[in-house]
Design brief:
It is built from 9 helices and 10 strands. The strands form 2 sheets. Strands 1-2-3-4-5-6-7-10 form an 8-stranded parallel beta barrel. A two-stranded antiparallel sheet has the order 8-9. It has a single domain (2-283), classed as Divalent-metal-dependent TIM barrel enzymes (TIM Barrel, Alpha-Beta Barrel). Strand 1 (2-6), helix 1 and strand 2 (29-32) form a beta-alpha-beta unit. The protein is of the alpha/beta class. Helix 1 runs parallel beside helix 3.
């Protein structure tokens, strides 16, 4: 099992120091958002700056750390259409540069009518929102195919693509071979369904058995009726059930810690490693 972390959860530093932070934390893989993880003096967007791309790629390779996915998350239905255009261009640039990081995945979520807040809005479930996300992703997939790279779509309850079935409909209508799925169970939960996590896991695995490449590792508790994110192993998420179901995927996904920081990193890393070891031995 490959276990990774979102690079900027370890800090923001030079390419060399960032790579060393990742190595020191004992991770094999990263989800990389360049502008959040790297400090570098340039007036260019990082993804278009050859010296940044080369320095980061070289530093990670020297420490045997792979880039599981580049993050270029944006809101396809933002009310500022110039901002959407720039974000789409940025996403395309990431697809074009992905091979230099030895990856073929570039990921995003699907946005909200609340613009930069990325929170629940009643119109997120509308046909208008669905069709706009579809239209924007169709543009991106042209470049994905040209670059032999993949758009990794991450559903979330409070965004436009909010359920496994809505994601399935989007993928069916896009009808494109260059789509993969990022599975973040926490993102699909809310106050009204957190006790149905087994059903949601089952549905995601059944619908996307051949498309899930990245699994985000989070956990949750409920405080005052609201879900609160905590570190993996410190909450109510049924990791044994999730990991057993992940074994049925067509390809082994990379497990990526997201929002796990400080002392929680080592606690959660050992929790996941021990669980994976137990399940492996139990299945023999």
């Amino acid at each position: 099992m490959k276990l990774g972390i979102r690079a900027h959860d370890l800090g923001r530093d030079s390419p060399e120091k960032l790579a060393q932070l990742i190595a020191d934390a004992n991770f094999q893989s990263v989800q990389l958002v360049l502008n959040k993880a790297v400090v570098y003096e340039t007036d260019e967007p990082y993804i278009l700056c050859d010296s940044v791309v080369t320095a980061v790629s070289k530093s990670l390779k020297e420490r045997n750390i792979e880039v599981a996915m580049l993050g270029a998350y944006f809101n396809p239905i933002h009310s500022n259409k110039e901002k959407v255009k720039n974000a789409v261009d940025n996403f395309k640039f990431h697809l074009q540069q992905a091979k230099k990081f030895h990856t073929n995945l570039v990921g995003t979520e699907t946005g909200s009518y609340n613009d930069d807040q990325w929170t629940y809005h009643e119109l997120n479930s509308s046909e208008e929102a669905f069709n706009e996300v579809k239209r924007v992703f169709e543009q991106i997939l042209i470049v994905a195919k040209e670059e032999n790279a993949y758009l990794a779509i991450e559903p979330a309850y409070h965004h436009v693509i909010s359920t496994p079935t809505r994601l399935k409909r989007l993928i069916n209508e896009l009808n494109h071979s260059h789509i993969q799925v990022t599975f973040d169970l926490f993102n699909l939960l809310y106050e009204g369904n957190y006790d149905q996590q087994h059903q949601i896991i089952d549905e995601m695995i059944d619908l996307f058995k051949d498309k899930i490449s990245i699994v985000h590792a989070k956990d949750f508790i409920v405080e005052e009726g609201k879900l609160k994110q905590v570190a993996p192993g410190k909450g109510w998420l049924d990791y044994p059930y999730l990991f057993k179901k992940l074994q049925s995927l067509a390809n082994e996904p990379v497990i990526i810690f997201e929002g796990v920081t400080g002392e929680d990193i080592e606690f959660s890393r050992l929790f996941i490693k021990n669980l994976a070891h137990h399940l492996e031995n139990h299945s023999l």
